Amino acid sequence: MDLQAGRFVDLHNHVVPGVDGGSPSLVETIRSLRAFRSEGVGVVAVTPHLDPARHAGTWALRRRLDELQASYEMVCDAAAGRLHMPALTFSQEVHARDADAVRRVVEDPRVGVGGGRFVLVEFDAELAGEPLKTIRTVRAAGREILVAHPERYHFPWSPDPLDTLRRWVDAGAWLQVSLGSLTDGGGPYGEGAERLAWSLLGEGMVHALASDHLGGARPQILHRAVARRLAAHGGGAQALQLLAGNPRRIVGDRLPEPVPPLRAAVPA
Ligand SMILES: [Fe+2]
Question: Is the CATH number of domain 8-251 3.40.190.10?
Fold first, then answer.
């Protein structure tokens, strides 16, 4: 497989310093960006957390977005002129506790991947707050919804998580799986996440892969390692689509292309 430098695009990470649980400092941010570039990532869409429930009212929400954008611009200034840096674009990871919270957020044109239609959304870990209703609300607002790490939720009421996730996709959601879930044993997310991630690949229901890199506390810049692992299981073409082609389309405000099912057992 051609792992040409700069081909990959990372859509989900926490490298903006001091604004969420990710990078604690600009020094670590620059170190992480350099690591992304070494891993073959040419474009990083930064996705600091945006939790509308913590910023009640339009003014408070705007102020939080101002804060995130100012920190992002500081990173851009620090990266400018340095060698071995990926290109950067501004985005957010929206914590959707319920549909009402997210309805407020998607009205702001600054919210979205690279200023486009796509919104990266994370649900409550236990899936409180009716995710399906949230998906429909985002779609009704004329936006595309990219659901973060579907393989990592707990699915408390669903005997088969794939059924639930299929309903999300049927309602118009796109699914972004974490790279760590596709490493041996699911990395920090465990074997349950690993099994579900491979099942989703088997159904052709993964639309993009991304790091969700959380700084030194949870380093997840694993693009080449995961590309090689998928290729070793007959998924070289899927790896390129999921790490390069589709993320690049999303950053460019274009819909992902269908990804052929990868019929491989969970690697032992
Ligand atoms: Fe995240």
Answer: no
